[in-house]
From TrEMBL:
One Pfam family in the UniProt entry: ADH_N_2
Single Gene Ontology MF annotation: oxidoreductase activity, acting on the CH-CH group of donors, NAD or NADP as acceptor
Domain of life: Bacteria
The protein's name: Enoyl reductase (ER) domain-containing protein
Family annotation (SUPFAM superfamilies): GroES-like (SSF50129), NAD(P)-binding Rossmann-fold domains (SSF51735)
Enoyl reductase (ER) domain boundaries: 18-329
Keywords: Oxidoreductase
Taxonomic classification: Bacteria, Pseudomonadati, Pseudomonadota, Betaproteobacteria, Burkholderiales
Keyword Cytoplasm: no
Amino acid sequence: MTQTNRQILLASRPEGAASVDNFRLVETPLAPLEEGQVRVRNHFLSLDPYMRGRMNDSKSYAAPQPLGSVMIGGTAGEVVESRNAKFKTGDKVVGMFGWQEFGTSNGGDLHVVDTTHVPLSAYLGPVGMPGVTAWYGLNRIIEPKAGQTVVVSAASGAVGSVVGQLAKRAGCRAVGIAGGAQKCRYVVETLGFDACIDYKAGNLYQDLKAATPDGVDGYFENVGGEVLDAALARMNAFGRIALCGMIACYDAQPVPLRHPQLLLTQRLLVQGFIVSEHMDVWPQALAELGTLVAKHQLAYRETVAEGLEKAPGAFLGMLKGQNFGKQLVKLI
Ligand SMILES: NC(=O)c1ccc[n+]([C@@H]2O[C@H](COP(=O)([O-])OP(=O)(O)OC[C@H]3O[C@@H](n4cnc5c(N)ncnc54)[C@H](OP(=O)(O)O)[C@@H]3O)[C@@H](O)[C@H]2O)c1
């Protein structure tokens, strides 16, 4: 009997905010495996903010996703059939199969992972791309020194939560910025940050000033817009800003900087980066992050939507901050 695969395609490009109408769910038959191929049943699908950029046909670091193709994305699953000597049925693997229940490939893009001490889903979070992103921006751009102050926005999220915990391990004062009292409480009480500012309440600049009495030496930017303005105004001379994401601008109009002169007067280093362009650090970063997770020394949280059909709604919700920690879709 022919098995079917369910897939979510990019049906149209958003005009303004993305909507569920930009996606289409289809069922396609699975062709028999050819020699050298592997078939994976995806268990988890990673939903990430960068996917919003790929939906547009605009200038970016990566080509737009073609219309009518399966939405791009990281996946973690299990080999269910193999005609490739490097993989056997039952192997747990991570790959980039995108928004679909089954993936088929020649194995070149798959990595077998050990789930003895690290849960499969964590390979899409703290021990995957978001974790390496945190590791790279913090260690290679901010280069934290003990006693310094590091601030990170979207602090309860997949990337931000790792940044602050690694900064604490480096002996820094770690201050988060997040949306809402519940997320801020989690950032301090569970993740161990020294403070967390709720940017949706109070006066962001005044609250950040109170939480950073010695100024800010390193700022890890996930958000942009007004949050960047407030952080910029607290930067110490020769501070470093790792520009990782600008999620406040993905769906909306760009927000101009209010005080760009601070870049000069504080002699700041501002470095944008794309983690997939730094594959040389991945083995070291993944080894360190995997050890921390296995030893329960790195906390993380997941928001899990159940079923492929929930992916578009969960993705759009994440862009509005409805996720609490790494946003995943559980497919089985
Ligand atoms: N450069 C790279 O290579 C790279 C790699 C991975 C990720 N990134 C970037 O890193 C950032 C974090 O990604 P993630 O996967 O860890 O996502 P995440 O933080 O788990 O989820 C996104 C969070 O962004 C916050 N947010 C959304 N709209 C916002 C707004 N208008 N103003 C302020 N905050 C807003 C929300 O948190 P609150 O509820 O706290 O507002 C939301 O939960 C994203 O900008 C992403 O594009 C970059």
